[in-house]
Structures are given as C-alpha cells and as structure tokens.
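User: quick one, sequence for these tokens?
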C-alpha cells in the first residue's frame, strides 16, 4: 500500500540476485528484509520503533562498557537527550552528562548505530580530561551575573546563572553559565558566558547568534509556496513543515485575506518572505531526499524566519533566522544560498552535541556548514540560469556590499579567505575561516577539474582529484555532523566524515578515499583513530 516500501523491497531483491547466497537467504526471509540485507537502503529510511528502542539498548550498553574511553567517573550520569535518524536509517543518540548533579558543558557523548540499532558505528565525546572539581562555589551568582552582563555593550536580559562544570578543555572547571541577551556593536547577541566559580574570571563564552551573511524576487514569478488558511484568512505558515513561518521583525507572521503574497519587488518585505519560505521549503526537501534528515532539527521540526532587519546582514540567533538587505537598499537578503546558509546554522546547532563550542575554528566550521547547505539547496532546486542556478558562490544575487558574492567555495582566496587549513585558522575571522572546509566540500563534490564547472586547486598531495558528486558529499557531511562534539575542529571533522563515508557506503572505498584525499588537499592530514579502507 505504501509505494515507497514496495520500491525498497524491489531494490533489495535486485541486489540479492546478483550478490552472495547469504544475501539471497536474507532477502527471502519473512522478517524485515531491509534489516538483514547489506544492500544500501533508501536515503530517507527512518528506523521502526523496535529498531529505535534497540539502538537505545545498544548505546546504553556501549556507554557502560566503554566508561573508561568516555572518561566517565563514578559521580557522573548520562541522560539520553536526543535520538535522530540520518541517511540510510543510521541512528545518532546524544547523551548529556552530569557530574554530582551539575550539567557538564562539553561532556556530551554521541553514539552512532546502524539502522537496526544493533551495531555501533562510532562513539564520540568532546571531553578531554576526567572531572575532579569541587562543586562548592566561592563566587556568588549575582557577582557572576554582573561579570557576564559587562561582556555586552547592549543588554536586554540576563538569565539566572546556572552552576555547571565547564569541560571543553583539558582542565575542567566549576563555572557559572550566564546567558545574556542583547547586542554587540554589529549584531544581536545571545551570549553564553562561563564565569569561574572559584576566582570569578571568565573561562569561556560563545554566542548563539551567527551573523554575517547577508542578502523575492529571486526565485521567479509566480512561485508556489506552502502556506495555510482558507476563505478570507491566510497566513505565511507552512503547516506541513512544523515551525516554519515568516513575518516581520516583531515576530508576527504575515497574514492576508487571500493566498497571494508579495509583489516581486526587491524592497517589498512580503516578497522577501516568499523567497525565504521558498528556499527553506526546498532546503527541507533536500534534507529529506538527499541527506535522509527529517526537518531542520532532525526530528521533524523547523524554525521561523523574520525579514526586514535594518542591517546589511542576516543571522541565526539560536531560535529563528532574520534577514536584512543589501547596502544599496535595493534587495532583501533572501536569495536561496543565504536562506540556506542561515538555516544551515540551525542544522549545525541541532546536530550531535549541539553547538560546536567556542572559538573561531569551531565558528568557521559553523559558517562553512551554512555555505554547504546553501550550495546543496541551490543544487537541489536546480533553477535555470535566468533565475538562481546552482553554484558554489555565496550571496552573488543579493550583491550584499556591492562586491558580488561574499564567499567562493572553490577558491576562497578570490575573496581574500584562506584556501586551506593552517595554524592561524583559530585566530581567523569566522567567515574567512570557513574557507578550508568550503574548499574541501567542493573538491569532494566536484574534484579539481569538473566538466562545466570551475577548476579548483589543491594545497598539498595529488594535484588531480575526482569528485563523488554533491549528493553523496552532502550525505557524508551531514552524517559526520551528526557525531559532532565540542570543541569541533577540522581534525575531528575529518575523522567524522571518513567514518561517515564508511558507514554510508560500506561496499567500497571510493567514497572513503575521496573524503580523505579532499581533506589532505586542504592541509587537514589524517590523525590517529581514522577509519581505514578496505
Ligand atoms: Zn553564518
């Protein structure tokens, strides 16, 4: 009755007929054949309830058996906080950690299992040292709040400080985590400040707001967007993608008496919402059909968009996207790659252990994630040259600052950004620090000399690389992101994507080796623990 199930079964039989007798037996067994046959399952293949519960059992047993490897002490507990499925039904279970009842920032562990929930693909933890801290604070909460408040020039609210263990470095510390809502000189800010609970100094901080890209009128007229309503009452709310809606800066969703929206002008805000919704809907569909992910958050949910930001910018603030305009004030910053970029931050935040931690290396990987999802969305939509054709440039349609695109993925240095990794990346501005991974993604997708696309050069290793196509590259990237832990680094991204390629494409080494070659080409070498192939 479900055509997708039928198609899956046919694919299994076809593979079984040309492979081993074991596979034939498995395919003819009455049980769920997709579970036992080693054929590649469909991209979007959420596991059934039984497989999901088996994954939890497997992951719990793994954590108990590998407590040494994940640096778990006897005063620590793990709690399953998130369980999502990825491409080919692979499952990712994220556990948060507490130490004597206090949340441990950086203590998350992600266990990946196969689709059946039986085999563990990987166990990753960002924690680098055992926790032995005393949990008695010597600094009171009010003092910590005042210290945190002083970190932003504009403060709207300061949340109640929360005592935590900060464990993203080799020296775990007792700290107050204080969330300050306000603004920096350039952009809104939702700043998490960690104040040392023993000496009152600032240990670390990170911002939920990721600003900096900017930029319908872009996607042709008319375009079809998913909205809701009937009679004489309509809303720019997409009820088929829960959480996705669009409106102005006050957070109210645009409504109307009919289901016709915008006027096609570059300065009209309702038109900007047409473009934002159109791009977000294409991105959602791309996630499902190419990457096997259910929604922006991995469990069927999306986030709202706001337009009309009074800035030459666009951002993600941890709970919604917000779009401004170009410097000439002629276009809203809502072309597909910019919308795809901002929702890419949402995907980053809801993958693996959540945020990638503090610092510009993690920040650069976060920005690159936005660019990768923008490029993937453009390729999925595959619009003609007269509109916004697929490419690996970022923001060329909005012409944000009058200098064309703001980033170039096949040659980041064309915009003054580094093409490859070096020890200066951790101190490079985050949008520039996106360069090495953006370049990696292009080399993996397209290679050095693709037909009909720009050539791209390498920084080390073989000068000629062959791409595996953007769909496979995206699937591998997403699967790696699902095992992210803080602090996220290029070395960890390499290990995670190599492991992901092996899990997703177990029957050969083409994908694994292409992932390795592209990382080596951008100066991110292999480190210990890397999966080998065959
Ligand atoms: Zn960004």
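Assistant:
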């Amino acid at each position: 009755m479900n055509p997708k199930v039928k198609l899956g079964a046919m694919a299994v039989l076809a593979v079984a007929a040309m492979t081993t007798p074991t596979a034939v037996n498995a395919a003819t067994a009455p049980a769920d054949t997709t579970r036992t046959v080693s054929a590649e399952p469909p991209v979007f293949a959420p596991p059934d309830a039984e497989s999901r519960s088996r994954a939890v059992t497997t992951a719990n047993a793994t954590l108990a058996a590998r407590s040494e490897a994940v640096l778990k002490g006897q005063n620590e507990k793990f709690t399953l906080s998130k369980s999502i499925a990825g491409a080919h039904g692979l499952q990712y279970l994220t556990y948060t950690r507490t130490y004597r009842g206090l949340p441990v920032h950086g203590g998350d562990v992600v266990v990946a299992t196969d689709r059946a929930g039986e085999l563990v693909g990987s166990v990753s933890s960002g924690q680098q040292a055992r926790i032995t801290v005393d949990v008695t604070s010597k600094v009171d909460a009010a003092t910590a709040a005042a210290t945190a408040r002083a970190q932003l020039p504009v403060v709207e609210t300061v949340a109640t400080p929360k005592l935590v263990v900060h464990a993203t470095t080799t020296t775990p510390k007792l700290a107050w985590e204080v969330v300050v809502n306000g603004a920096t000189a350039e952009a809104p800010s939702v700043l998490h400040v960690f104040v040392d609970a023993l000496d009152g100094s600032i240990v670390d901080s990170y911002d939920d707001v990721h600003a900096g890209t900017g930029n319908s009128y872009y996607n042709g007229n008319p375009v079809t967007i998913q909205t809701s309503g009937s009679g004489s009452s309509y809303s720019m709310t997409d009820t088929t993608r829960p959480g996705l809606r669009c409106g102005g800066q006050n957070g109210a969703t645009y409504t109307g008496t009919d289901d016709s929206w915008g006027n096609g002008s570059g300065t009209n805000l309702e038109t900007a919402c047409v473009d934002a919704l159109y791009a977000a809907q294409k991105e959602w569909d791309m996630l499902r059909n190419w990457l096997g992910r259910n929604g922006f958050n991995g469990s069927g949910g999306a986030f709202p968009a706001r337009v009309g930001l009074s800035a030459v910018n666009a951002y993600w603030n941890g709970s919604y996207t917000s779009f401004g305009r170009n410097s000439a004030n002629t276009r809203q910053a809502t072309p597909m790659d910019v919308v795809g970029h901002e929702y890419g931050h949402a995907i980053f935040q809801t993958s693996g252990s959540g945020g990638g931690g503090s610092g510009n290396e993690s920040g650069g990987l976060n920005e690159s994630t936005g660019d990768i999802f923008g490029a993937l969305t453009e390729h999925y939509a595959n619009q003609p040259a007269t509109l916004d054709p697929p490419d690996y440039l970022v923001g060329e349609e909005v012409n944000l600052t009058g200098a064309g695109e703001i980033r170039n993925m096949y040659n980041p240095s064309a915009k003054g950004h580094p093409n490859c990794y070096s020890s200066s990346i951790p101190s490079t501005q985050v949008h520039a620090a996106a360069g090495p991974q953006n370049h990696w993604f292009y080399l993996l997708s397209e290679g050095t000399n693709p037909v009909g696309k720009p050539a791209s050069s390498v920084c080390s290793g073989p000068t000629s690389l062959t791409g595996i196509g953007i769909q496979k590259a995206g699937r591998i990237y997403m699967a790696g992101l699902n095992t992210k832990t803080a602090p996220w680094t290029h070395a960890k991204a390499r290990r995670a994507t190599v492991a992901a390629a092996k899990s997703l494409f177990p029957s050969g080494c083409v994908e694994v080796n292409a992932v390795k070659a592209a990382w080596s080409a951008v100066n991110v070498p292999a480190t210990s623990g890397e999966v080998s192939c065959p």
